[in-house]
Amino acid sequence: MTGSSNQERPLNVVWLMSDQHSSRALGCYGNSVVQTPRLDRLASEGLRFDRAYCSYPVCVPARFTMLTGRYPHHHGAVGNRTPLPLRERTAAHHFSHAGYATAFLGKMHPVDAQTHGFDYYVDFGHYYDYLGPKTEVFTRGMGADDSGSGSPWVTMYQKHLARPGGRDLSPWFRDDEPKAAMPAETLRPRETRPEEDHFESFIARETIRFLQTYRDEPLFVVASFLKPHNPFAPPAEYAAMYRPEDMPLPAWDAAHVQNIPRQARQRGAPEAGTPEGDDWARRFLAAYYGNVTHLDACVGRVLDALEELGLAQTTLVIYTTDHGEMLYEHGLRGKFSFFEPSSRIPLLARLPGRVPAGAATDALVDQGDFVPTLLDLARVDPAPRSQALDGASFARVLDDPAAPGKEFAFGEYALNGNQPFYMRREARWKYILYTASGNGPNEELYDPQADPGELDNLAVRPEYADVVAEQRKLLLKYLAEQGAPLPGRT
Q1: Domain coverage including residue 42
Q2: What's the pLDDT tens digit per position in 43-53?
Q3: What DSSP assignment string belongs to 199-264?
Q4: What is the pLDDT of residue 436?
Q5: What is the pLDDT of residue 170?
Q6: What is the pLDDT of residues 367-414, one digit of tens each?
Q7: Computed from CA positions of residues 418, 424, 428, 429, in that sequence, does the dihedral angle turn out positive or negative?
Q8: Between vectors from CA 55 to CA 380 and to CA 448, what angle results, nearest 5°?
Q9: Does residue 231 belong to any structural domain of this protein?
Q10: Residue 158 covered by a domain
């Protein structure tokens, strides 16, 4: 074990990961509606990061940035259908080389057959084996929600209006009476699987089984849950916790959207801002919060197992997600942008005896920093033939939450051949540069502390021209140093 001579036992790492979890949907981040008692407790026992950012607001690129410590323009997995090249080293290669038992349980989204260095790997295929004939219910739900046309709830609503009596609604909607006779307001999410058959429950059990089996080994374990990502169909008992009529909607003014570059508003929810659109936004939020609370319960089962197995005191636990969810802010759904709900991610870290309990930090962090930090904390050297890491360790912030983070967090986006756009988030300013041509603004500048809703794009105001020019210069300089693509600009 590299560098472990001064430790009685090597540091274990349990990395809890979710999918599409906005930092605005956690109690410990200030949401008073959603119930997340176990993650809130984890925050009270450790450190909460208030300025952690996604490096690419799409599943595969973000996940492999976290696992490699390299940005997508370097590791090459720039879309959900683009595999990580075989020779890219992940945290699993590093920890396995140092003698750890490594496991990835849950959604890796690897695109191809690689296990990316993990000794033990459980993914959707194993879950489908477990579900058996019930797999169809799950996969139909995934397909219905991945319609690609904005809010699936609104999409399904529009289908209902267009095809009365049709059977093309999502499988979790009530279908105990003809659709033509069913007023839209009676539609409710309906889950057809018991709680124990949900992917999160399955992954929690498999994670606990691995911990029980290999508890005497030094452990590097990633437990990766699908929720709160669709299907937006929480188990019945969790769906019942949230009524659509109780869901507050974010305030936004349609007029300000005209000052937002076209690429930033490409995921507008149909009918956003209308009574019909707001009604379905509330239904979406109720289902999303049900997903969040079920995720929270499954995270809690893993945390309880660490206590029961006597591993909690020697284990670094981190919780985070791949990217956020717009949650109807600016009339948008999904991710794919650098607005705060999409790009700012929850990050919690607990390590008894080292990380101060109940603390928070405003140190800037992005997903490229995770691997350097884990190697630093565990005193593990990179595996042979490893590529240079892009990120920087924030281990000193875990020791002292007042310590400064990096100068700026970096983000990029160029999915499916889109013209790339980039984020540079420094202490005060968040700057985004778009490279697509067209009418209207192609830059955004926000002061998130003064304008947390990002409703005032300062890039279109003449009095901020000097700030915009300086931010553009700094970003372009960094992109040139990185060798990142920037078509159409010099």
Answers
A1: 12-134+194-403
A2: 999 999 999 99
A3: HHHHHHHHHHHHHHHTTTS-EEEEEEEEEESSP----HHHHTT--GGGPPPPP--GGGGGGS-GGG
A4: 73
A5: 41
A6: 999 999 999 999 999 999 999 999 999 999 999 999 988 999 999 998
A7: negative
A8: 120
A9: yes
A10: no
Query: If pLDDT is split at 50, 70 and 90, which confidence band does 314 have?
Result: very high
Residue 430 belongs to some domain of the structure: no
450 touches 437 (CB < 8 A): no
Give the largest CA-CA distance in the chain: 71
pLDDT reported for residue 257: 78
**Full DSSP string of 148-212:** SSS-HHHHHHHHHHHSTT-S-S-TTB--SS-GGGS-GGG--B---S-GGGSHHHHHHHHHHHHHH
Q: What is the pLDDT of residues 154-175, one digit of tens each?
A: 344 444 333 333 333 343 333 3
When divided into structural domains, the chain yields a total of 1
3-state secondary structure of 28: helix
Please give the residue that has the higher pLDDT: either 468 or 190: 468
64: Cβ contacts below 8 Å, ≥ 6 apart: 72, 75, 77, 84, 88, 90
pLDDT of residue 138: 83
The type of residue at 408 is: F
Q: From CA 388, how far away is CA 405, in angstroms rounded? A: 20
Across residues 69-91, what is the average pLDDT?
Answer: 92
Q: Give me the residue label for tokens 């590299």.
A: 2
Virtual torsion, Cα 162, 168, 174, 180, nearest 10 deg: 30
Token pair, residue 251, equals 């305030």
Query: Which residues partner with 181 through β-bridges?
Result: none
Instruction: Let me know: does 319 contact 28? Beta carbons within 8 Å.
Output: no
Report d(CA 353, CA 9) in Å as an integer: 14
The CATH number of whichever domain residue 277 belongs to comes to: 3.40.720.10
Whether 83 and 114 have beta carbons less than 8 Å apart is answered as yes
Predicted pLDDT of residue 273: 83
Reference 380, options 316, 319, 302; nearest CA is: 316
Contact 326, 249 (CB under 8 A): no
Contact in structure between 332 and 455 (CB atoms under 8 Å):
no
Output the pTM of the full model: 0.90
What integer pLDDT is reported at residue 398 of this predicted model? Answer: 97
In a domain, 61, yes or no: yes
The answer to whether residue 269 scores a pLDDT higher than 60 is yes
How far from 347 is each of 83, 207, 390, 448, CA to CA, in Å? Answer: 26, 20, 19, 18
Contacts of 463 (CB under 8 A, 6+ apart): none
275-308 and 152-162 helices, crossing angle to 10°? 140
Beta bridge pairs of residue 189: 173
- Say how far apart CA 189 and CA 238 lie, in whole Å: 11
Q: How many CB atoms are closer than 10 A to CB 225? A: 29
Residue in this structure with the two tokens 């870290």, named with its chain if needed: 349
